[in-house]
Amino acid sequence: MGRVVVLGSANMDLVVRMPRRPEPGETLTGTRFETGAGGKGLNQAIAAVRAGADVAFIGAVGTDSFGERLRARLVDDGVDDSRLQTLDAATGIAQISVTDDGENTIVIVPGANGHEGFDAADRALVEGASHLVVQLERPATVLAEAMRFAREQGVTTVLTPAPAREGIDDLIDLSDILVPNEGEAMLLSGAPDAESAAIALSRRARTVVVTLGSRGALVAEAGEIVRRVAPRPVEAIDTTGAGDTFVGVMVAWLVAEHPLAEALDAATAGASIAVTRAGAASSMPMRDEIIAALA
């Protein structure tokens, strides 16, 4: 079984729970405040390692207590942290507002995640991997360099294009597997709906998996919809990290040489478990829980 290398962000999540979103200018009393490990990169690394993969993480934290906590989270879960650098900077944070219906809004301050480096030690880690997993919370120049190098080494590249932004055509073209949500897919393609977006993007990335939340997912290849992934209805309490769980579990199954269809079923099961729990990394299921849900 191959190794997964995740190049991405590590953030301390600052979570405020509230009955609803406040109106502009309104002060609203929340119900709870908590902190936890997060960042799309860290989340996907933990989701993959809990799903049974051998995982290494490339990223950066600051010299503060948040950085120490994030490193400890990775190590405790068994992720190789040898390329998690500690920089003279603040650790990245994400301010997350979660309403009673489980929906969230997120504001990110990148901090150390803005580090521009991709050096020889990082290259050595990627060279020995089966899959490279990236997101958009690191500088685009770093992502492009890493993905291009991975392609040259025959390493499968997986991109979650979030936080969504335009002007990442080169990253899409370097993606073997592109995993946007519905809104991201429409933004990147200019298409009016998820299906049209998936078809358009699949003319550039080899495989496109558009996640649809409670409606499952669509898979497109070479300009055609090739699979529709059924949802697993659950009562969600917190959707934070659900998409990252989906990606991490999917990649863990692919690295274990399961076909894509089985990997997507496992990913859907994993995400359906995660949304029934509070938090991001803390909500992600273990492999035996995913297998039990698939039974």
TrEMBL record:
Protein location: Cytoplasm
GO terms assigned for molecular function: ATP binding; metal ion binding; ribokinase activity
Binding note for cofactor: Requires a divalent cation, most likely magnesium in vivo, as an electrophilic catalyst to aid phosphoryl group transfer. It is the chelate of the metal and the nucleotide that is the actual substrate.
Cofactor: Mg(2+)
Enzyme class name: transferase
InterPro entries, per the entry: PfkB_dom (IPR011611), Ribo/fructo_kinase (IPR002139), Ribokinase (IPR011877), Ribokinase-like (IPR029056)
Record bears the keyword Zinc: no
UniProt superkingdom: Bacteria
Domain Carbohydrate kinase PfkB positions: 2-285
Pathway info: Carbohydrate metabolism; D-ribose degradation; D-ribose 5-phosphate from beta-D-ribopyranose: step 2/2
TM region positions: none
GO cellular component, one term: cytosol
Regulation (activators, inhibitors): Activated by a monovalent cation that binds near, but not in, the active site. The most likely occupant of the site in vivo is potassium. Ion binding induces a conformational change that may alter substrate affinity.
SUPFAM superfamilies, per database record: Ribokinase-like
This protein's record includes keyword Magnesium: yes
Keywords of this entry: ATP-binding, Carbohydrate metabolism, Cytoplasm, Kinase, Magnesium, Metal-binding, Nucleotide-binding, Potassium, Transferase
Residues binding K(+), per UniProt: 238, 240, 274, 277, 279, 283
Residues at the catalytic site: 244
EC numbers on record: 2.7.1.15
Swiss-Prot/TrEMBL catalytic activity: D-ribose + ATP = D-ribose 5-phosphate + ADP + H(+)
Main localization, broad class: cytoplasm
Subunit structure: Homodimer.
Annotated function: Catalyzes the phosphorylation of ribose at O-5 in a reaction requiring ATP and magnesium. The resulting D-ribose-5-phosphate can then be used either for sythesis of nucleotides, histidine, and tryptophan, or as a component of the pentose phosphate pathway.
Similarity field: Belongs to the carbohydrate kinase PfkB family. Ribokinase subfamily.
Identification of the protein by name: Ribokinase
Gene expressing this chain: rbsK_2
